[in-house]
Each structure stands twice: as structure tokens, then as C-alpha cells.
Design a protein that fits this description.
The chain contains five helices and five strands. By secondary structure, the chain is α+β, with helices and mostly antiparallel strands. The chain binds FE2/S2 (inorganic) cluster (2 copies).
Length: 160
């Protein structure tokens, strides 16, 4: 069997559940999440690592999952958009703020935005508008524009 054909078993915790999958070495984490684990809230919006739609948390840090090989996540703890709310049927605080401030239209970018905003608020709990715009600079929204997204995040800062 050639190097390319070799498969590796990846074991990780995803949204609090231990899972494993057999993957090719070249498989990206985003494809493991979507194809093997069926968590399709994590989106693929580009092939240049620019859009941020694939953002998840890897060991508590927001990362673009299209920039990480699945094998590199072996042993890690991953949180996707499906796992952000402590109650599965409810929205988390960031999702609620987006809903209340009309911070989405088609919603394609929203899961990645939410993951990046969670990181932003951990890093800058008192974020101002510049911090917010900088914090979501790696996430592209093609339809809402950024005004209402910034207002949504500001509402979370104001509550703290
Ligand atoms: S799909 Fe990962 S940055 Fe676009
Ligand atoms: S809500 Fe449509 S791309 Fe952001």
C-alpha cells in the first residue's frame, strides 16, 4: 500500500462526544466534521482559507478547519456550531444576539461568525467597535454587510 493510500484512525471529542474515524492523511478537518460526523453546520465557502465559514473551536481556540488536517486533530477537543449551546434546542448568547439584531440573511457565514465572535469575546470581553471589526476580519459575509453583526456583538459587550 502506498503512502497516499494509508489510512489513519483519528480519535477526538466533538461537542462532548468521543468519536473516531478512519481517514486519509490528506483529509481536512472540515471534511472530517462534515462528511464523517455529519455536522454540516460547519460550512465550506472557499478554497483559499479566506472566508471563515469553516471556523470551529479546537481545544478552545477558534480555527479555520480547512487549514488543519484531520490527523492533526487526533486527541483534540472540538466544538462546532452544533455544540455551542448548553441546551441543544436553544440558541447560545451569540446566536441570540445575531437573531435579535438581524445580523444574518442567508446564514451561510453565520456559524463561522458565531465561532469567531465567541473567541473575540473571550479575548476582549470589553471589545469596542474596532476590536469587533478586527475580530471578525477573517470571516466574510457576502450578503448582510457587517453593520448589524457589529451591533449584535456590541450588545453582548454592553451586557457584561
Ligand atoms: S472554507 Fe475555510 S476559510 Fe473558507
Ligand atoms: S448572512 Fe449571507 S453570507 Fe453572511
Amino acid at each position: 500500500m502506498s503512502e497516499v493510500e494509508k489510512r489513519h484512525v483519528v480519535t477526538l471529542e466533538i461537542n462532548g462526544v468521543r468519536r473516531n474515524a478512519e481517514v486519509e492523511p490528506r483529509k481536512l478537518l472540515v471534511h472530517l466534521i462534515r462528511e464523517d460526523f455529519g455536522l454540516t453546520g460547519t460550512h465550506v465557502g472557499c478554497d483559499t482559507s479566506q472566508c471563515g465559514a469553516c471556523t470551529v473551536e479546537l481545544d478552545g481556540q477558534a480555527i479555520k478547519s480547512c487549514t488543519v488536517l484531520a490527523v492533526m486533530a487526533d486527541g483534540a477537543s472540538i466544538t462546532t456550531i452544533e455544540g455551542v449551546s448548553p441546551v441543544a434546542s436553544r440558541l447560545d448568547a451569540v446566536q441570540t444576539a445575531f437573531h435579535e439584531h438581524h445580523a444574518l440573511q442567508c446564514g451561510f457565514c453565520t456559524p463561522g461568525m458565531v465561532m469567531s465572535v465567541r473567541q473575540l469575546l473571550r479575548d476582549h470581553p470589553d471589545a469596542n467597535e474596532d476590536d469587533i471589526r478586527h475580530g471578525i476580519a477573517g470571516n466574510i459575509c457576502r450578503c448582510t454587510g457587517y453593520h448589524n453583526i457589529v451591533r449584535a456583538v456590541e450588545s453582548l459587550v454592553a451586557k457584561d
